[in-house]
Structure to design on (419 residues):
């Protein structure tokens, strides 16, 4: 391929990916899901503490409560996060958007009668609809309701208040018309679905959309492809992790929270492929490459890049090497760059199906130091798996980096001779 064709292809790919990653809905999903991290990480920590043997019963109960509140109500947190992110994107009223999104979600969620041994049954929402089973409905509601609300306000489909009315009061009245329209439409949708064989929107979405997507997201092949795609985009200079973040949220998040719910209920987690698993076991690729640069390179350029990159690489930060080597558009290291993440996920998956690595049900921060993240996610087995990944990635990169290093040494020698 000629240089002009390469440049044209790269520019076209950049335009397409930028349009995708900057799409309002895609950005809102990615940013909104990020907002749920604090509560899910805290819930994961309570899960880890609760699994320590020999704890007093009261501590175990407290930890179980923390896990339940973070996992069984995850859809509520997702709605708040995504609605807030969408409102920011549309420059709308964040609080009003969140309230309207939550109200719309509750209208669409069936209220069930529970017999508690009294004269009248108790009426309540089932936790299954507020947990992982309701995530897709929550996402759709937060995105659509917030977008419509902002659009109506933008188009001035509101009460027009006199200029003499204080701004705060005027904004409240301006929200009434769009909120009423959306709320009535949602009530009609809920009423219509109640007459179908599904009974409610949740079961319709779960059957026709969420279950097929969960099946796709539960496949090791889809996980490996996403890992490959993320690094392939990096090869073209595009931040792959940011681009695929919303895709991972859609395909792999519900399985992760279903695992959390199972553990909170005292059951066994069964979804091997999930977003928590992918975050924890994409592998210590940055550290392996930094080690090669520092201790196995002869080129002064690569040694310097390695020294600068070593500490960031412990926390999974690859940018100093991505741009320093550079790895972008560098055909020599195309193979290890694009395959290393997929290979690491494959190693962790194999370790899980043979029974060595437990199914991951806790969310650990993405930038925890290498090896500590594996230990936090899966105990000593997670640490061992990450050590194996480290060695494999090191061996994968080594022959290609040796070739680059030889080129670097030759260039440095030529420069020195010219000087």
């Amino acid at each position: 391929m000629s240089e002009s064709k390469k440049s044209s292809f790269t520019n076209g790919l950049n335009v397409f990916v930028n349009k995708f990653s900057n799409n309002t809905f895609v950005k809102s999903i990615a940013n909104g899901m990020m907002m749920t991290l604090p509560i899910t990480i805290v819930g994961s920590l309570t899960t880890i503490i609760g699994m320590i043997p020999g704890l007093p019963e009261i501590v175990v109960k407290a930890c179980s409560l923390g896990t339940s509140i973070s996992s069984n109500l995850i859809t509520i947190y997702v709605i708040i996060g995504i609605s807030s992110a969408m409102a920011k994107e549309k420059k709308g009223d964040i609080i009003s958007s969140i309230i309207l999104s939550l109200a719309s979600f509750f209208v669409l969620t069936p209220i069930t009668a529970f017999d508690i041994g009294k004269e009248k049954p108790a009426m309540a929402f089932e936790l299954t609809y507020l947990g992982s089973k309701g995530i897709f409905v929550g996402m759709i509601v937060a995105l659509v309701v917030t977008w419509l609300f902002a659009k109506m306000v933008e188009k001035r489909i509101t009460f027009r208040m006199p200029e003499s009315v204080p701004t705060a009061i005027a904004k409240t009245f301006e929200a009434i018309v769009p909120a009423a329209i959306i709320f009535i439409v949602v009530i009609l949708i809920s009423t219509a679905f109640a007459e179908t064989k599904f009974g409610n929107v949740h079961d319709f979405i779960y059957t026709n959309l969420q279950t097929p997507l969960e099946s796709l997201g539960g496949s090791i092949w889809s996980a490996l492809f996403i890992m490959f795609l993320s690094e392939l985009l990096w090869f073209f200079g595009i931040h792959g992790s940011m681009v695929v973040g919303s895709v991972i949220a859609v395909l792999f998040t519900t399985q992760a929270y279903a695992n959390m719910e199972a553990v909170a209920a005292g059951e066994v987690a069964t979804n091997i492929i999930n977003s928590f698993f992918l975050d924890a076991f994409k592998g210590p690729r940055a550290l392996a490459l930094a080690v090669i640069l520092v201790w196995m390179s002869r080129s002064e350029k690569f040694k310097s890049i390695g020294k600068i990159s070593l500490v960031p690489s412990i926390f999974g930060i690859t940018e100093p090497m991505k741009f320093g080597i550079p790895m972008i558009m560098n055909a020599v290291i195309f193979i290890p760059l694009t395959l290393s993440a997929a290979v690491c996920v494959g190693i962790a998956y194999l370790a899980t199906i043979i029974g060595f690595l437990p199914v991951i049900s806790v969310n650990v921060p993405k930038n925890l130091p290498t090896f500590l993240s594996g230990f936090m996610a899966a105990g000593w087995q997670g640490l061992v798996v990450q050590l194996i990944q480290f060695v494999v990635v090191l061996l994968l990169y080594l022959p290609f980096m040796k070739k680059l290093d030889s080129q670097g040494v030759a260039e440095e020698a030529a420069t020195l001779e010219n000087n």
In short: The first helix runs from residue 3 to 21. The longest strand covers residues 111-114. The chain has a mean pLDDT of 87. The CA atoms of residues 104 and 186 lie 6 Å apart.
